[in-house]
Structures are given as structure tokens and as C-alpha cells.
Write a structure and sequence with these properties.
417 residues, alpha+beta, four-stranded antiparallel beta sheet, two-stranded antiparallel sheet, 16 helices
Length: 417
């Protein structure tokens, strides 16, 4: 989708203002091509560093990894809008002294509303204003239709698009991850005008590596802990992206300000960082407590400490987070009882209580069995003998991973007595 430069610059400025108006602290625009960090993704996958997260290995019919290039997963995309919002709250960090009988739930998961929904609603607001701005540009004659010879699949002649629409929908350029049916219909509809602006909104669900585009949108640099870091806001940032068929003026990439610091690498208790900027998910506490199904490898359990959902250590020790501002957004304030919750409460939580307490929460991803498995390991690491009766009861749990973790916890407590 071609658009005159003056209109492109105006729309880019409007997008950033719209992001601010929607509640985002940061907003920028990244190009689609020429991002060297994406070259490392296939090797990372091939090395098995994604663990059991098979969705990261999604491929097209030609066998290419979708997340390795938007030219593979969204060949119509010309620009990536990246928005970031602060979710830091004025509560203790995991590295601060705490009762070993209390668990740690990652900061992002405390929120009253699932961040996917909270960020998506704001992102839709930006998308709507982008669409309106584009229509205004068309009305003023600043937008031009796609040239028939364009490589964009959406530029196919109407007859060919009608003939191949169902086939194309199965190939990925029409039906990407989490794409709504009404969006597929809009793109495949032969009656759609050539000047239709195509957009896609994603919050952790898109076929792309968000942090790479965040860097090139000027949102922040990729730290040695692989998180996006902003020198004013730190790393407590949720990212939302909008893919667009517009050629918008990109921002400058953020410079790396990690310097010689290795605090995040040194602080990781499970040694998940195989090198600066390189993470092996198989050793990451966040992966082990959330994504890993079944039993957690025994050699990893002691390093998990009191973590039951996610891990913030590499962010908690980062100097750029020392003065990170706290958000006032109500949707990111913690639900009651989730900051340093009691391990015993989590271990003995019923199925009904789990559903009620974590309705609309990202904690549901680990499932009740995963949360109880993690609680059993944390109790074993606590050295608190009063957990013995609870763990002994859990040894007969119907879930084998919970029962085995409880048996490990009993042995761990016995060894520490």
C-alpha cells in the first residue's frame, strides 16, 4: 500500500499520539526488513532452546519459521507499530527479604485483568485511529492503490483472488495466529477495494519476535537478559504490535546501554543465560513453572526456590529498574493475596477456588496441577518442617507430577532438618 511521504509522516505522528492517548507510555514504528537479530532465531530453535514451546516453531508450507521473518508470515506487511505500557507496581521485588513460607508469583501476573486483554483493548484504539487517518488520506488524494505487479498476495487480480482465496487462507498469509474470522473475510473478499488498509493487532500471539521490532521502533534496547529495556521506564513493559500494509517512516533503533554489566546473568539461580543476550528456556524458571508440563527436571528444582509462577530475578537486579516508575493503571494493580502468597494456600487450592481466583488471569496458563506442582517444590526448598503434613498428603495426589514433586519435597525437608 503506497502513500505519499507527507501523509506517511502525518499518520506516523498520529499513531504515536494515539498510543499515548490510549494509555501507552511508548510508541514507535519499525521497518519489516533488515533486522539482523532475526537471523539468530532459526539457530535458537534448532538448538532446542525453545523447550516444549512448539508454537514458536510454527512453519509455513515451505518449511520456513513464521517468526523468523514477516515476509514469511505476513508478506503484505510494510511497517510494524510497537506500543509499550508500564506494568510496574509499588510492591516488593522478589529479591527482597521474604518469609520462605511465601511463594513468588511474577509481577506481570498479579494484575486484576489479563494483560493480553488490557493491552489489546488499547491497541485496538490505536488501530482504529490509524484506519481513520488512512481513509482521510484517501479522501484527500494522498493514498494510492497497490500496483497490479506488486508482490503482495493481496494485490492479485480479483478473479484470481476469488479462485484462490480458500487455498490462500490455509497458507498463512490470510489466516495467521489468532486472526479473527471477520478479518479473514475482509481480506479474502474479492469485492474489497485495492485501497483497503490491512492491519493486525497482536499481544504475545503474533508470528513475530516482538522485542526485535521494539528495538527498531525505538522503544528500548534488548538487554543481556533478553528483555526490552528503556532508560526511563526500565523493563517492566508489556508490548503490543500492529502490523500494517502502510509504508510508515520508521524510528531509529534504541542504542544498547547494558555496557559491561552482567548482574542479570550472574543472578540467575538456574544459569539460564548461556551467554549475554542468549537464553536457554529449558533452564529458565519462568519456562519451568509456566510452560513445562509434567515433572520439572530434578536438577532444576533447587534453583527454583520459592517461585511458583514465573520469575523476575533478572529484572529485579537490573540497575535500570532501580528508579522504574510505578504505574497507576488500575488494571495492573495486584489482585488480593497474590503478592507473596502463602504456599500452603496454593498447594491445597481446590479446583473451584482456582477457577474463581484466577478467572481472567494469565496464571490459568500453568493450570491448577502446575501451580500445585510448583508449590510442592517451593515447600521442599523452604526448609520449613511444618510443610511436611501437606507434602505427605500431596504424595498420593492423582496427578503424577504433583505427587512426585511432593515426594521430592518431603525428602528435601528431611535432609534439611
Amino acid at each position: 500500500m503506497h502513500i505519499h511521504k507527507i501523509a506517511s509522516d502525518q499518520i506516523a505522528a498520529l499513531v504515536k499520539q494515539s498510543a499515548h492517548d490510549a494509555g501507552f507510555e511508548l510508541g514507535g514504528i519499525a521497518p519489516v526488513q533488515g533486522l539482523p537479530e532475526l537471523n539468530y532465531f532459526p539457530a535458537w530453535i534448532a538448538a532446542g532452546h525453545a523447550g516444549e514451546m512448539k508454537y514458536l516453531e510454527a512453519r509455513d508450507e515451505a518449511g520456513s519459521l513464521k517468526r523468523a521473518s514477516l515476509q514469511t508470515s505476513a508478506p503484505w506487511a510494510r511497517s510494524v507499530i510497537v506500543c509499550a505500557i508500564n506494568y510496574n507496581t509499588a510492591h516488593p521485588y522478589s529479591t527482597q527479604p521474604a518469609n520462605p513460607a511465601q511463594a513468588w508469583i511474577s509481577r506481570y501476573a498479579w494484575s486484576r485483568e489479563d494483560y493480553h486483554d488490557a493491552v489489546m483493548s488499547k491497541l485496538r484504539s490505536v488501530e482504529s485511529k490509524l484506519q481513520n487517518a488512512f481513509q482521510n488520506a484517501i479522501a484527500e488524494g494522498a493514498a494510492q492503490p497497490i500496483a497490479p505487479e506488486s508482490a503482495d498476495p493481496l494485490a492479485k487480480p480479483v478473479a484470481e483472488r476469488r479462485k484462490n482465496s480458500a487455498h490462500d487462507a490455509s497458507r498463512g498469509w490470510v489466516a495467521d495466529i489468532d486472526q479473527a474470522p471477520e478479518e479473514r473475510k475482509k481480506i479474502c473478499d474479492p469485492a474489497s477495494p485495492a485501497t483497503t488498509l490491512i492491519t493486525r493487532c497482536y499481544v504475545d500471539t503474533g508470528p513475530l519476535v516482538e522485542r526485535v521490532y521494539a528495538k527498531y521502533a525505538g522503544v528500548g534496547w534488548i538487554g543481556k537478559n533478553t528483555c526490552i529495556l528503556n532508560q526511563k521506564l526500565g523493563s517492566w513493559l508489556f508490548l503490543g504490535v500492529i502490523l500494517t500494509s502502510l509504508d510508515l517512516t520508521p524510528d531509529l533503533p534504541a542504542p544498547d546501554r547494558c555496557g559491561t554489566c552482567t548482574r542479570c546473568i550472574d543472578a540467575c539461580p538456574t544459569h539460564a543465560f548461556i551467554a549475554p543476550y542468549q537464553l536457554d528456556s529449558n533452564k529458565c524458571i519462568a519456562y519451568l513453572t509456566i510452560e513445562k508440563r509434567g515433572a520439572i527436571p530434578e536438577e532444576m528444582r533447587e534453583g527454583i526456590g520459592r517461585h511458583v509462577f514465573g520469575c523476575d530475578i533478572c529484572q529485579d537486579v537490573c540497575p535500570w529498574n532501580r528508579k522504574a516508575p510505578a504505574t497507576t493503571a488500575p488494571e495492573f494493580q495486584p489482585r488480593e493475596g497474590l503478592v507473596n502468597p502463602a504456599l500452603e494456600w496454593l498447594a491445597e487450592m481446590s479446583a473451584g477456588e482456582f477457577r474463581e481466583k484466577f478467572r481472567g488471569s494469565p496464571i490459568r496458563r500453568t493450570k491448577r496441577t502446575g501451580l500445585r506442582r510448583n508449590a510442592a517444590i517451593a515447600m521442599g526448598n523452604s526448609k520449613d518442617q511444618r510443610f511436611l503434613p501437606v507434602l505427605q498428603k500431596m504424595q498420593s495426589d492423582e496427578d503424577s507430577a504433583v505427587a512426585e514433586s511432593a515426594t521430592w519435597g518431603v525428602k528435601k525437608l528431611a535432609a534439611s532438618s
